[in-house]
Amino acid sequence: MYRHVIPSLLALTVLGATGCSTKEPAVARPDSAAVAAPAVAVGPNVVTVHASDFKFDAPDTIPAGMTTFRLMNDGPGLHHMQIVRLDSARTFAEFQQALGKQGPPPKWVVMVGGPNAPEPRTESNATLDMPAGNYVMLCFVDIPGGVPHFAKGMVKPITVTPSSAPAVAAPTPDVTMTLADYSFTLSKPLAAGKQWIEVKNAGPQAHEVELIRLAPGKTSKDMLAWMQKMDGPPPGSAVGGVAGTVPGSSLYFSADITAGDYLLVCFVRDMKDGKPHFMKGMIQQLTVS
Questions:
Q1: pLDDT by residue (tens digit) across 88-133?
Q2: CA distance linking residue 263 with residue 170, whole number of Å
Q3: Helix (H) or strand (E) segment spanning residue 229
Q4: Peptide bond preceding 182: is omega within 30 degrees of 0, i.e. cis?
Q5: What span, in angstroms and rounded, lies between the C-alpha atoms of 119 and 71?
Q6: Are 140 and 15 in contact (CB under 8 A)?
Q7: Quick one: which of 109, 125, 214, 240 could link to 236 by a disulfide (CB 3.0–4.6 Å)?
Q8: Which has the closest alpha carbon to 113: 13, 199, 3?
Q9: What is the mean pLDDT of residues 275-285?
Q10: Cα 81 from Cα 51, distance rounded (Å)
Q11: What is the pLDDT of residues 45-84, one digit of tens each?
Q12: Strand 175-180 versus strand 193-201 pairing type
């Protein structure tokens, strides 16, 4: 939260998979014929990632398929986990080389989402389908000091290997949130309690959502004013959400939302003029009861 994500690799400098498949043991009939029990449905793979100043502690490889990333923020400040996919069999070394070049990022660098920023000592999550291939985790948060954390070493490659496990369905959402240029549309109002939220990017460019719980009596105007100078404590606290993702994608995150006032914010910078999307109106206040 509170950082400026821009779709240019140069401009970024200024701005345990624990999946398991459970099967019953074969049982013997009276005639000694062994019969395999039906397969038990399982959920997404769960990958726990610890974020601190300034590194990710995560597995080097995970199996392909529907995956829930749990981001545990162990640091004293904010961190998030932006995942990018390296298409065309590109490698982490090639990504590092591209990171220092001017101009827009190569087409083979694709933003696929990830857990957005939770408060320190808390966690957030995101669930998405992860095809086999090469990926990179980065933290674009740039506070304090204005230097994005990936420039301080908060970058980690991760390889997704082919899997023969049965395909797992995506979570069933309680609410669907559609992101567009430049708005958030909910299928129904958010309600207090634990829930799954589907995030769909209707494009035509990358977007994200950061869910912020406002302090009592604070509004979106207070948050916008704070983001201009960042003096004193922020008028809200980070809950999580989904990091930047390309048009046409669907991701999911779960949250236990308490009653109160919240903001939905997109910090991604516009591809045309470089302004963060919240400055184009992609910030929405809502009340959860």
A1: 999 999 999 988 787 778 999 999 999 999 999 999 999 999 999 9
A2: 26
A3: helix 220-229
A4: yes
A5: 11
A6: yes
A7: 214
A8: 199
A9: 96
A10: 8
A11: 999 999 999 999 999 999 999 999 999 999 999 999 999 9
A12: parallel
Q: Other C-beta atoms within 10 Å of 216: how many? A: 7
Q: Are 37 and 236 in contact (CB under 8 A)?
A: no
Q: Specify the amino acid at residue 10.
A: L
Token digits for 247? 């048009």
Mean pLDDT across 216-243: 94
Residue 225 φ/ψ, nearest 5 degrees: -65, -40
Q: Which parts of the chain are beta strand (E)?
A: 27-28, 34-35, 45-52, 55-57, 61-63, 65-73, 82-86, 109-113, 123-130, 133-138, 155-161, 175-180, 183-186, 193-201, 207-214, 236-245, 250-257, 260-265, 283-288
To which residue do tokens 């013997």 refer?
A: 28
Q: What span, in angstroms and rounded, lies between the C-alpha atoms of 199 and 197?
A: 6
Contact 251, 127 (CB under 8 A): yes
